[in-house]
């Protein structure tokens, strides 16, 4: 399925009190909505991903994968502020006729979820069978469940947290310092801050992977060299890859949005908010080697959402494990959904016989 765009023809109010004069939401959908509209799988993507989940989450999503377009109606929307089609800093501001650049208002995870809900309404979706996301996508998943804007039957949150940690904010601020150290970042042009973005991506990779992963994948066979190491070229290569497909301003705003994530903001204690996510079959997945979202954060979520299940996904690759260990993840998710679908069938049978 090709990229689609929903034009929301009204002002879009933000959590900050500011408003976007207009809003467009880019998204991909796969398959068809069934007659009773019960087959919706909604995916919330991570920081620099796009809405084409069949492309970036193979092994779990695809024509011949567990989540496929024959059995399900799968939707993935590009987040507010991102580079891939949804309103972002390089979008033309209708009030000025020029891109927003750094005049773009700050957005939050809560704003992203409000935009998702507008798209769900547009698509005629009143119930999500399974809502799934990892990392920043997991933050959206939890926020959407806490907001109670739509009925959710199954919730799968992977490598994420109920509020972003000081540790995570420090990682993001270090990356934003790298962006700001590039003098072009503040210029009003489409390619502003590319060197800063390259450096920021290099920093981010250290939080996505692990010491052991680098010790194997970037190990040197030539012990006599004194420069031009594999690890050095790998960091530069990954930085260049992101520069070619993303922009520095979106990166800045999305890391700010990630920092903003806090389920308890204007709601009360986080534990109470999580406890209010009841009546939803919930699977929380943690990765023991994850440096950025350590497993105690997922354990906290699972402990406080009523009847939530917790699974530890052991991976050599740290935070990125949820994108790599798809064979194991598919089995875990399959078992989780099969068990809860069986419970739902039994409950329906009991109700019919009463």
From TrEMBL:
EC code(s) of this entry: 2.3.1.31
Reaction(s) catalysed by this chain's protein: L-homoserine + acetyl-CoA = O-acetyl-L-homoserine + CoA
Localization terms from the record: Cytoplasm
Name listed for the protein in its UniProt record: Homoserine O-acetyltransferase
Pathway: Amino-acid biosynthesis; L-methionine biosynthesis via de novo pathway; O-acetyl-L-homoserine from L-homoserine: step 1/1
Entry function: Transfers an acetyl group from acetyl-CoA to L-homoserine, forming acetyl-L-homoserine.
Active site: 135, 290, 319
High-level lineage: Bacteria, Pseudomonadati, Bacteroidota, Sphingobacteriia, Sphingobacteriales
């Amino acid at each position: 399925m090709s990229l689609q765009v929903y034009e929301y023809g009204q002002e879009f109010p933000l959590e900050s009190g500011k408003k976007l004069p207009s809003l467009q939401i880019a998204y991909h959908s796969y398959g068809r909505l069934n007659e009773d509209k019960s087959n919706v799988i909604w995916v919330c993507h991570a920081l620099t991903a796009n809405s084409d989940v069949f492309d970036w989450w193979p092994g779990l999503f695809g024509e011949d994968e567990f989540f496929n377009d024959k059995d399900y109606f799968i939707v993935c929307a590009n987040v507010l502020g991102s580079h891939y089609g949804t309103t972002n800093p390089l979008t033309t501001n209708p009030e000025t006729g020029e891109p927003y650049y750094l005049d773009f208002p700050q957005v939050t995870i809560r704003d992203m979820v409000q935009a998702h809900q507008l798209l769900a309404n547009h698509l005629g979706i009143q119930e999500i069978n399974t809502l799934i996301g990892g990392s920043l996508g997991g933050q959206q998943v939890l926020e959407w469940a806490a907001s109670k804007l739509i009925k959710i039957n199954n919730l799968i949150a992977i490598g994420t947290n109920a509020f972003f940690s000081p540790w995570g904010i420090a990682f993001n601020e270090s990356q934003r310092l790298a962006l700001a150290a590039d003098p072009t970042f503040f210029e009003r042009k489409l390619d502003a801050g590319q060197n800063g973005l390259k450096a920021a991506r290099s920093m981010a990779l250290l939080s996505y992977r692990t010491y052991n992963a680098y010790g194997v994948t970037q190990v040197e066979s030539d012990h006599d060299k004194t420069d031009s190491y594999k690890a050095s070229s790998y960091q530069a290569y990954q930085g260049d890859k992101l520069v070619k497909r993303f922009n520095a301003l979106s990166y800045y705003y999305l890391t700010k949005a990630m920092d903003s994530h806090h389920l308890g903001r204007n709601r009360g204690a986080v534990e109470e908010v999580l406890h209010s996510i009841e009546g939803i079959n919930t699977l929380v997945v943690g990765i023991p080697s994850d440096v950025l979202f350590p497993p105690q954060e997922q354990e906290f979520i699972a402990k406080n959402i009523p009847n939530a299940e917790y699974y530890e996904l052991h991976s050599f690759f740290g935070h990125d494990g949820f994108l790599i260990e798809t064979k194991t993840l598919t089995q875990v998710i399959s078992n989780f959904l099969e068990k809860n679908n069986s419970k739902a069938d039994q409950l329906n049978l009991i109700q019919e016989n009463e």
